[in-house]
Amino acid sequence: MASQRLSGLDAEEANRQHGLLVQRQLSLLRTQLKSDLVIYGRPYGSPLNDEDRAFLTACGVDLNVKPWNQVISPPTARSTP
């Protein structure tokens, strides 16, 4: 799914979008790892999109259990020094 979306972009934009995709996927896997370790927290950020669901399903994640069956909290503003 993501590869189809990226294939239609020019090289520079495809590279940028790929980087964003990798960041998102690592965040999803981190959330799953925390769940596997029973460190329950609620996922935050944007709600799962079709690409997110496809990625997690391909990784063998059950989207019908915590933390994926919860409402995703909006990101909070982080203060900078």
| Beta strand % | under 5%
Task: Report the strand count.
Answer: 0
Number of structurally distinct domains = 1
Instruction: Characterize the quaternary organization of these chains.
Output: single chain
Described by strand count, sense and barrel closure, the largest sheet is: none
Residue-averaged pLDDT:
81
Gyration radius, rounded: 14 Å
- The share of residues in helices is 40-55%
Structural classification: mainly alpha
Could you walk me through the main structural features you see in this protein, from its secondary elements to its overall organization?
The chain has 81 residues and is mainly alpha-helical. The chain has one domain (2-58). It is 51% helix and 0% strand. The protein has helices at 2-7, 11-36, 50-58. It is elongated and about 40 Å long. The chain starts with a helix and ends in a 23-residue tail after the last helix. The relative contact order is 0.15. The mean pLDDT is 81.
Summarize the topology.
Blueprint: H1 2-7, H2 11-36, H3 50-58
Characteristics:
single chain; 81 residues; mainly alpha; 3 helices
